[in-house]
Amino acid sequence: MTARKVGLIGWGAIGRVVGTALVRQQVPGAELLCLVDNRPLGDAAPAPQVSFEEALERCDLIVEAAGQGVVRAWGERVLASGTDLLIASTGALTDEELSQRLRTTGPGRVYFTGGAVGGLDLLQAVRSLGPLDHVRLTTTKLPATLEQPWMDDALLTRMRTATGPVEVLSGTAREVPARFPRSTNVAASVALAVGDLDAVRVRVVADPAAHHTRHVIEASGAHGSYRFEVSHLPDPGNPATSQVVPHAVLRSLSALAGRTGQIL
Q: How much is the average pLDDT of 142-156?
């Protein structure tokens, strides 16, 4: 089998782990050809740093690890060029028009990584039995990682002086990720699995004791009930991201590269 020629967009908390693993040949069947980043990386880059256009010419798979804006700006163009796209920043897909365009643009194929949560494969399978009546996601993080420009002084003060959990925002998976563009890709991922942005109720909680980022997914319907709970260490370089996320991207890459023995 021919190795996948991978271009990586973003050299941050996720991209550095993914890119380093590829260079060390830890993903059989995948080779890092180039990097795209809006900062000059110099000697820090383990592969040639090129323009976005050159990456499309060189690669047959682009891995997005740079944020929702990249998905919005470049996603369709990647797919239209015939290059496949693996998306880490699933929060961009709360824009249903964008999500639909990405699913229908080709000949490149679009894939999504589950990121910091599990159980999404099961929720996707359950959809074939009928809609879920109740889906709820509760995300709990350190207050400092959740601060946003739109927050008023009263809310910021509550978060900064909290001695216990404080609910910061609640809403649907359509509404919440847009308010926390770097912190709530999980909400969009759950909605992708369930197939309905408005069916997923999301609570974002700030807790000064949350040294682990915690996600709890609860779902139920006529055919069964499901509960998934995960607790991760935040990435030391970017506490808004769980340490496990780049490894979820690498698992997805392994599947796309044809590695056998994986749970799909």
A: 93
